[in-house]
Design brief:
With 348 residues, the chain is an alpha+beta fold. The strands form four sheets. An eight-stranded antiparallel β-sheet has the order 14-13-10-6-5-18-19-20, covered by helices on one side. Strands 2-1-3-4-8 form a five-stranded parallel β-sheet, with helices on both faces. It is built from nine helices and 20 strands. Bound molecules: fe (ii) ion (FE2). Fe (ii) ion binds next to strand 15.
Length: 348
Amino acid sequence: MLSDRIEGKWIDAFCETFAKCGVKEGDSAVILSETQSRQLNVHLAELALLRLGSRPFHIVLPTPRNAYPVPIRSTGASVAIGGLAPVVSALGQAVFVADCTLEGLMHAPETPQILKAGARVLYISNEHPEALERLRPDDQLAARVRAAAKMMRAAKRMTVTSAAGTDMAIDMTGASTAGVWGWTDKPGTLTHWPGGMVVSFPKGGTVNGTLVLDRGDVNLTFKRYLEAPVTLTLESDYVTRVEGSGADAEMMRAYLAAWGDREAYAVSHVGFGMNQQARYESLAMYDQRDFNGTELRAVAGNFLFSTGANEFAGRYTAGHFDIPVMRTTITVDNTVVVRDGVLQDVFG
Ligand SMILES: [Fe+2]
């Protein structure tokens, strides 16, 4: 059982990450939160920003009513701001935004405007700080993620296979790629902590094949290791069949159907985890309320598959699954980047 109290070591960890974001004495820094935010992280952000000599202030929004028929988990698309102009303007004017919203501003509708104004945004994933303290800034990880993002931006084709039966292909031409290493010091950019993955949003009509989610793979919306295999058939981006028995397949079918929206079945992003410090077993180590799953997305060698919104393919929906798939082989053009779930040493 973890106790929700301020610990000096957690202020240290927040300071380390904020310092990598270039937060300096006198910088204006917004701590953006909502009423359902993890108060411990909100307080730690404030104390760390004060220790760095910056000028923090809080913007707190009431967590809005869920507009959908199902609970929403880790979509990366916060609706907390709700287009409120004074908030958007204040965030844009700050040097640094410590984003403590539940979902994060990654895909929030207001984010382009905030970044255009020059703010740099760090989403602090809604994890217990005991997880954040282990996932510190790592310069070597940053260099490897940058190299992987460069490879993915130039890629034409990505294939994913596995002994469990996965055989899928993605046309990467024109895909939009982001590398996330856990901090950003560049004005007008956004990232999240923890980091350690590369994700690409493919263009429309580019993803085809079979994806077998095996026992032990993870559905992060349900915060569960799969107990029985689920086979997804992908045709021109869309999941057209979800086959399998047991709770995992049943919940996937029900949750996808609940949206009443064809776009919920389409591929959002594809990529892979690169963080050797991120632990596969982390979901078993925390209460569900203390876990948002970003660590599992970053586990080195996982194929990070997701369904839901892909603005680069012109698809918008709030339904989102992030599914780290273990033990696959991922080939980008002619380079094997992950072999049987092991990240290969190809990024320097
Ligand atoms: Fe995602």
